[in-house]
User: Fold this.
Amino acid sequence: MSPVRSFDSLLLQAQKTRIRRGHHRSTQVLQSIWCDLASNDYLGLSRDRRVLDAGHKALDEHGTSARASRVVSGTLPVHTDAEHSLADLTQMPSGLLFSSGYMENLAVIAALGRAGTRILLDAHVHASLHDAAKLCAADVEFFEHQNLDHLRELLRHGDGKPTLIVVEGVYSVLGDAADLANLQMLARQYEAWLVADESHSLGILDKECGACSQAGISGADNLIITSSLGKALGPAGGVVLCPETVRDYLINTSRPFIFDTALSPVNAAAAAASARIVGTEGERLSQQVFESAQCISVALGTSQSAGAVQSVGIDGTGNSSEATEENCGYL
Ligand SMILES: Cc1ncc(COP(=O)(O)O)c(C=O)c1O
Assistant:
């Protein structure tokens, strides 16, 4: 019989490994921030007067919490208002709010990735999508980052299972934009659906307010957009933008939706207000982001990326530090 190891020794070992690899994280409060290059409030909307007013009003009317799941008694007018506003903004048929972007990704992938289905993910998608893939019962495969030939190869060797292709609009770590128009065409050719996480592109791309609108694929019947609300829009929360049938399916089957207290009314109201501001002023606000991004890329000598995310390789290889099991300290 092997010797018993306690959790104490396991955690100590994991901590030592993290420190040795320089992966040690902390949650300390930063005392003074002179120049914030790390937060996701790309358009500054988390402190916009109109967004704050909408949040205050919802707080006074509904309190701090929705007090129940959406499918029990937690659905409030601010939720449906935000869902309509976000669907209008992205030109998608419908929207469904979640308590976070992480939850919304778990929800979509776990609900659609049933036994007998297949999920093909870009190797660089966000950790929440990697975790979602582990939760689901589908056959899961990864294709090389942005390599559509590799994806096509995997699609060609499919065995007729309903297939989801999962990408990000603008990649959260590398800052490059997905070729969404061709991805959607490829998905269509193989009767697959495309899931695009727009957390880092919603609200901050040129004339259109997101990468899918920009690529001209918004509203497609094989497209699902997921997005954290905690980036350009300012509040916390997540949204899935999708055909009505998918919305209905998620409401009825998605455990992170059914068994979770609804998004707080403050965040829902703030999201609706932000969506309306982005709809009318997004282009001007985005311009400031592009100008700042250009200054930073010139100063750091990096190539300018597609949107708000400026990627700087700090390990000398240009490799990013996406959350893998290894760097999450599970070892
Ligand atoms: C691409 C992407 N998807 C999802 C999430 C999760 O969003 P949230 O912070 O709202 O849980 C993030 C957050 O970092 C992200 O970058």
User: Anything to note?
Assistant: Residues 100-102, 105, 126, 128, 168, 172, 197, 199-200, 228, 230, 238 surround pyridoxal-5'-phosphate (CB under 6 Å). The domain at 47-277 is CATH 3.40.640.10 (Aspartate Aminotransferase; domain 2). The longest strand covers residues 163-168.
